[in-house]
Structures are given as C-alpha cells and as structure tokens.
Amino acid sequence: MKKTLFDPVQLGQLQLPNRIVMAPLTRNRAPNAIPTPLMAEYYAQRASAGLIISEGTAITHQGQGYADVPGLYGTEQLDAWRQVTKAVHARGGRIFCQLWHVGRVSHVSLQPGGGQPVAPSAVTAKTKTFLMPEGFVAVSEPRALDAEEIPGIVRDFRHAARNAISAGFDGVEVHGANGYLVDQFLRSSSNRRTDDYGGSIENRARFLLEIMREVCEEVGRERTGLRLSPVTPANDIVDDNPQKLFDYVVRQLAPLGLCYLHLIEGATGGPREVEGRPFDYDAMLRAWREAGAKGAWMVNNGYDRPLAEQALSQGADLVAFGMKYIANPDLVERLRTNAAFNEVRKEKLYGGGAEGYTDYPALAR
Q1: 16, 221, 272, 358: least CB-packed within 10 angstroms?
Q2: Is 252 strand, coil or helix?
Q3: Pairwise CA distance, residues 114 & 100, whole Å
Q4: pLDDT tens figures, 259-297
Q5: Could you tell me if residue 365 is inside a domain?
Q6: Which of 56, 92, 49, 90 is nearest to 72 (CA)?
C-alpha cells in the first residue's frame, strides 16, 4: 500500500499519528541553559507532529557551544524540561530529546572555567558560534582529548539519556551530525588521531558506536535514534570518502536495533546536492537494511509535500521538517490541506522572546 505523510506508523513503542517529524531547531531561548515556560508553549503548539525532536541539548557544561541553549545535566534543567514534556503530552504529542556535545564548535566563554573546547584533534574549525550580546563570533581553538577522557564522555551521553527519560521525554536522538563532536571523530578532516580512535574508518567510528551501545543499553533501543549528515559542510567538516565511511557506520549500527536513523541530505539548511560531494543515499539505505536494520529511515532537508511523498515511495518512513516548523505550528494541517505557509522572520530566529517564536498564527486564527 502506498505510504502517505498522514499514515499512522509504529516507532519503537510509540504509535505516531502521522509520518511528519519536527526536526531539532536551535532557538537560543534558554538563559543559563534552563528551559523556560515559553519553550513549553512553543513545543506544545507543535504537538500535532508525529514526533517532535527537541533542539540540541547539551549533555554536560563542556558540551555547550552556543549562548542560551538548554542543558540536561542539572536538577533545575531537568525540572524545567519536565514542564516542557508535560505540556507536549497534554496536547497528545510525542517528544524525543536531542543529545548534543558540540566539541570544537564552542568558545572559551561558554566552557567550564573558561577552558578550551575539546575535539578529537587540535584543529580549529573555520566557523562561528553565537554569544550574547555579541552575536556570531569565531569559535575558539580546541584541545585534543586525551584517550583516557573519551570513556567519560561516552558515559556522559549515557547519563544524559537517563536524565532525558527522567524528564519525561519519550526517547532520545544522539546528535552525530553537522560537524559536532561525534561527527568530528568520524571525519578525516577533523580527526587526526593516531590511537584507537583515529586513522582507519573503523577507528574513527569507534566513538559513535560506543555511545550508541551505551545509550541503547541505558534507555532501550526502542527509544534511541541517531542523526547523521554524510556530506554537509556545516561547521567546516569534510571527509575523504564519505560513502565508504557512512556505509560502514550504518552496517555497524544495524545490530543495535535503533528505532530510527535521521539523515540530513545535502547541506544542512541548504542545497540537497553539495557541489563536489556526491553521495548515494539509496546505497546507504540498502546497506542499513541488508545489515538487518528494522528501524525507521527518516529523511530531512528542504522537503515539501510532493518531495516528501516521493521519498516515502522510495523507502523513507518519516520526513523531518525544520524551518517550516518555526513559522507554522500547525504544519501537519497545512500540509494536509495544501494551505499556504507563514514566512519565517529570520531576524527573530536566535534569542529573544515570544516574537518570532510563539506568535506565528495557526490556520484557525
């Protein structure tokens, strides 16, 4: 039977009412890394999504990379997140927490004790982060993680996953995309280590695979997803052979039984085809399935309804929408009825209050 965006679908232990996912969207509205009541309103407005994935949420203070993004490592943060998840569930929604460690994409002013950001290798990214009130500034030079520090970060992911479930989330998504710490370990451009976590594809994938095993063991494979972005140039990331790398990664992930794999196709928030970086996503999906994976295949980047329906006909199970969800809290209904979309007020994307956040009108209004 032909799949449509509006079919119910099973995801782990959750029954989703449709195949439409709200992608993670950083909005920089959590002062002191603590979620606010305004955030609870924002997510609850979008509860008609089949699944909401929260904005990137730092697993530790060291994992912070931007001003006013939320964390998941303090009691006050968890108490505040409980109000968010409660609000979403009260509207009948489902919400996963995206677990985030930015690695080298940070600034000394955001780090514990003003220390250097950490990375697989001491290679500074040619990218910027967001500070208050300065705005966008160049990231700081990172230091290379010592080998004995790495197991501690793996445990931090596990602990954050446990905290997320404690805070009422229905599951977690590990952020392995967009040039952040997990992705930095995967890529030849940012990982120049010569120990067991660098060099070969097998070694560079070790950090990711250790994290995923720990998180699955802690909260259950049916509540664990992963986000990857094979060819995005985001945050100055590149690899010598992304096809070989990611085909290997998904084959190794398959036995873990993740509930979904979330793929950013092309450049994050940009073109679906990246010049000079060809990639065969169908081959990656075949590798995932041939290795025995049963979890959902979630696609993301620049989707509208026709393109989403085409993706579903070609093997996708879920379609994530990002920018459209910022301006359209009732995106499901707008897609269903082919209604016009509100336009995003880009000057209100990062920081601020309700304006450009919770004041976008729904169709009924």
Answers
A1: 272
A2: helix
A3: 20
A4: 999 999 999 988 898 888 999 999 999 999 999 999 999
A5: no
A6: 56
Q: How many domains does the chain have?
A: 1
Tens-digit pLDDT profile for residues 38-56: 999 999 999 999 999 999 9
Find the catalytic residue in 66, 180, 260, 281: 180
Which pTM value belongs to this model?
0.97
Other beta carbons within 10 angstroms of residue 343's beta carbon come to: 9
**Beta carbons of 23 and 300 less than 8 angstroms apart:** yes
Structure tokens at 127: 């990218």
Q: Is 355 within the bounds of a domain?
A: no
* 93 part of a folded domain: yes
What CATH number is attached to the domain comprising 325?
A: 3.20.20.70
String of DSSP letters for 77-118: HHHHHHHHHHHHHHTT--EEEEEE--TTS--GGGSGGGPPPE
Please state the φ and ψ torsions of residue 36, each to the nearest 5 degrees: -120, 165
Residue of 319, 265, 256 lying closest to 293 (CA atoms): 256
Report d(CA 252, CA 263) in Å as an integer.
16
CA-CA distance, 295 to 313, in Å (whole number)?
A: 17
Q: Which two structure tokens, joined as six digits, stand for 329?
A: 């809290």
Burial class (CB in 10 A: 0-12, 13-18, 19+), 89: middle
248 is catalytic: no
**96: in domain:** yes
CA dihedral 82, 85, 90, 95 (to 10 degrees): -160
